[in-house]
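Because discrete structure vocabularies remain unfamiliar, we reproduce here a specimen of the format, pairing a chain with its fold in token form:
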Amino acid sequence: MSGTTILISPLNWGFGHAGRMIPLARELQRRGNKVLFGADARLLPLLESELPGIKLIEIPGLHIRYSRLVPQYVCIFLQMPKMICSAVREHYLLERLAKEIKPSVIISDNRFGFWHREIFSVYVTHQLRIPFPRLLRFMEPFAAWVHRRIISKYDLCLVPDYPGEVNLSGRLSHDLRLPANLHYMGPLSRFRAAAAAEPSPGLRIPAAAEPSPELRVLAAAEPLSPLRRPATPDDYITPGHRCCSLILSGPEPQRSLLLERVTVALRGFQLYVLSATPVQVTASSNHEVTCIIKPDSGTMRDLVLRSTMVITRAGYTSVMELVSLGKGAVLIPTPGQTEQEYLGEYLNGRHGFIAVNQNDTGRLGRLVEEWMVNGVAPVRDIARIVVSAEPPNNEQAQTIDSAVPQKNKQTPSIDSALPQLPDSTPLFAEALNLILEQKKE
């Protein structure tokens, strides 16, 4: 079926939910459908260059406040009434919007109220089970039941992961009672679309007609200032140099805390910071840190591929995008965010990922030095050392100690030959067919 009007709207908690809807929107558009993308006003400027030819609509989202001291799950729990009111409000907003644009399909990424009883509604989530802190884990079955009730309002539920034992989300979307309308669609990554649109292996520099990413330099005790000359490839990576890339994301104040700690830990290394929003702090180290603000997918993809080490939050979208590039990373979960803490623990030693607690970022410099001395650039190769079943020597023991979170220092009993992730193309194609068939329950 072609010519279908499809409305997509993601949750506005950062760019992650919107970012993983980009490949889905692009492919639906490529198949001849009319796609409209609804997002919070703060996300629209980031989506303009990623979704050419797709109409963007402002749909207000929920704004959650976080604290520097209180764990994130406590902040979210205290704002539950606000979340419920937001879901009800967006449901009635959708009913009014549907009368104007008359979509045949509605796709919601984790927006609880974004369904319509008369329009084929699709729900996208990687958290069928919402993780709770250890002391409150007895509440998880009830939360999963509530989530299934929400999912039952939709005609189709898509999980961006693999079915079976080899997967990326672990117990978040496996080993529990599954909704009857569920389909695993494979990981989603905008980098695949960027690679398909741009086969050249070189670093992507936007044409003059396109909005260029903003480049800024952080210097010790100096405020941020834009570069006063046109961007060149050398502004991203100095040829022959090994560099580290920090994908900066997440809510404040933890976002700024992560930047401060990483810049101090990697003093003396070439560091590139990729951020969707302006950086609000200055570097507290004696070296320059290059920040690229609002990088497009092609630029971000090329920089990540050419980095010796990638550091990122343990957000699920970041995990999917790195896996699509065959690139491992150091995962630093946001403190108090139970989903990221679980993903860090689950993926530590799997698929090229190593988890480090935010309080242990001081060990990053030693970890990078170890890799450079050994001449090993890809993180995934080091992950195989970390999970090796053989007893480590003294040098490896130091590396393992610096990589594994403090609360889980034992070496995972996983074979060094990690299982290959399956091809997700058939799962994605089947999900698209299910969307376009529009079979109402």
